[in-house]
Structure formats: structure tokens, C-alpha cells
What we know:
2 domains
Amino acid sequence: MSIYLEFFLVFVSIGLFCFGGGYVIIPLIQQEVVNRGWMLPEEFINIIAVSESTPGPLAVNAATYVGFKLSGLTGAFVCTLSLILPAFFLALTIGEIWNTDKGKAFFKRIMVGIKPVVTGLIFAAAVSLMQTIWIVPSYSYYTISWSGVFLALAAYIGIRRFALHPVFIILVGAIFGVLCI
Length: 181
């Protein structure tokens, strides 16, 4: 099978389940990319960092980065297009159904079930990312990256307690990484 056909099939299937935004499908992208041997978990974390730091939707940026890393501009194009096609067609279909009274009631009931699941998927993505960042292989054992733990907690406190802008927090993290780690 051609790598581009494989990209297409993987990212179209991921795009079909893009309810709740990019954070929800990060575990799907991670599972596909890592299980297929396209990237190591540590490389995937870099994709999330770059995708979160650049303009645009997280999932689209991640798909573009995966495609580019694996197969240049053509790979980036195929992965990106494949990810957004299902959302485009679903939005057209749902938009037409939503305009009816029965459609609105139906989708409200669906959302009652999807919202908690989306929350769980986002939590799963966060836990997976924390494990990869905080638990570092060191010779024959694993150690905790205390700088990673500190930065994550500082970012959390900065957003929740002091309402700092995420861009500011990302810049501070980048500077900290350059200067201290």
C-alpha cells in the first residue's frame, strides 16, 4: 500500500471522530502514529508542542506536521486534507439536519452523551502526554523530570489562578527550556 493511501485512510478515520476539537483526537493520532512505527512517543510530544505553539487548529497542525515529517510537502498535504474532509462533509450534513426542530432535539440528546466522553478523551490525552514528558528513561530505570512537573504546574497555576494568556505561558516555557534545561 502506498504511504499516501495509508495517510489518507488513517487521517480520514481520525477526522470522522473529531467531536470536541483537536484535544480529543490527540490520543487517536498518537496511537496511530506511534503504533505504526512512524514516530516514537517522544517525537510525537514534539509535534504537540509545535502544533500548540503555531497558529491554527491543534489537530490540523499535528496532521500537517506528521505528514511533513514522514513525507515532505506531499505528505503534509495528504494528511491535512484527509483529516479535514470528514469534518467538512459532516458539518454540511449536520447543518442541514440542525435546521429542523427534530434535528435540534436529536443533536441535543447526542451531546448529552458526547460531552462527558470528550472530557474523558481530553483527560486521557493529558495523562498520556504527562507520562511521556514527566517519566524519563535513564539507563536501566526511569526517573521523574522535575523540571517538566514544575513547568506543567506553573502553567496550570498561571492559567487558573492568574488568568495568564496561554501564549505568554508558552513563551516563558520556551525561554525556561533554552536557559535552564
